[in-house]
Amino acid sequence: MSLIPFDDRDGVIWFDGNLAPWREANVHVLTHGLHYASSVFEGERVYGGHIFRTVEHTERLHRSAAALDFEIPYSVAEIEAAKRQVLDAMGIADGYVRPVAWRGSEMMGVSAQQNAIHLAIAAWEWPSYFDPEAKMKGIRLVLSDWRRPAPETAPVHAKAAGLYMICTLSKHKAEKAGFHDALMLDYRGLVAEATGANVFFLMKDGRLHTPTPDCFLDGITRRTVIGLARARGIEVVERQIRPEDMAEAEECFLTGTAAEVTPVGEIGAYRFTPGEVTRMMVEDYDALVRTAPRAAQAAE
After folding, report:
1. Which residue, 3, 142, 193, 248, has fewest beta-carbon neighbours within 10 Å?
2. Which of 137, 159, 171, 204 is catalytic?
3. Does pLDDT of 87 surpass 60?
4. What contacts 36, CB < 8 A, 6 or more positions away?
């Protein structure tokens, strides 16, 4: 399959306050964010021309920057307006938005107090397909060799670039072995998350169980799905989950901006059968993201 490089596309990218031609939205090779991972970002989905949970994403971007000890020089309202400007300029109805903030190149070293803070916002088409039968087959995961770090060792609640290094390593190894993704344990050996999505299990007690996000990102999609499940009268339990607890799970699914709600059929030695609850969450989430744009339009 021929890939279209992300640095060689038509369109514009919002870059430090202005729309720049896509191919000219570049940074220097000695940018601090490249060498020391002083960068934070968001991944957001556009449905019907509207970004789902857009303000929540922007607020989290600010919190992530604060966790890395820098301040984005644009307010939440200014970033929201910039995202709208990008979508309108690109003519995107269904797509993906990537805001990213980073330290510049004024100082090259661990210390970087004088570095300027930059912000860019890019968006591209990402059609949303909803094929419940295909989704309900369930993806296959392996257990990663890497573990999510302890809160005392990294800014684990920030959506920071450096935290994804072990995710890339984990996913590459899984794909080389013929799997779709990897499940990561945390520093204690407890179930944490997949490489870019949170995880839920329907246990034999009829309740949805999901790991407590005390050392990894509490996803916006994760919180949305918890709300959808409770609206259905399904009890959701947030707790520490041991790997062996997966033997008591009947269904399993991932949640995330990119993953949406993705059924899982296999994690290592454990097998699951995507069933009624998983299907409800897939369909309810799809209905919500498609209803939200109509509600937003009605309010305008």
Report:
1. 3
2. 159
3. yes
4. 103, 110, 112
* CA atoms 118, 119, 125, 130: torsion sign: positive
Neighbouring C-beta atoms of residue 137, cutoff 10 Å: 10
Contact 268, 141 (CB under 8 A): yes
All structural domains of the chain: 12-125 (3.30.470.10), 132-289 (3.20.10.10)
HSE value, Cβ hemisphere, 13 Å, CA-based, for 203: 17
Structure pTM?
Answer: 0.94
Per-residue pLDDT of 150-169, as tens digits, reads 999 999 999 999 999 999 99
Ranges of H-type helices in the chain: 32-36, 54-67, 76-90, 132-135, 165-176, 220-231, 276-299
Confidence of residue 131 (pLDDT cuts 50, 70, 90): low
* The pLDDT value given to residue 300: 46
* Helix axes of 276-299 and 220-231: crossing angle, nearest 10 degrees: 110
Whether 216 has a pLDDT exceeding 80, the answer reads yes
Beta bridge partners of 181: 141
- Is the predicted pLDDT of residue 299 greater than 70, yes or no? no
CA–chain centroid gap for 126, Å, is 15
Distance CA 99, CA 72 (A): 11
C-alpha 127/C-alpha 191 separation (Å) is 32
Beta strands in 71-204 (DSSP E): 95-103, 117-125, 139-148, 181-186, 191-194, 198-203
The question of whether 173 is a catalytic residue gets the answer: no
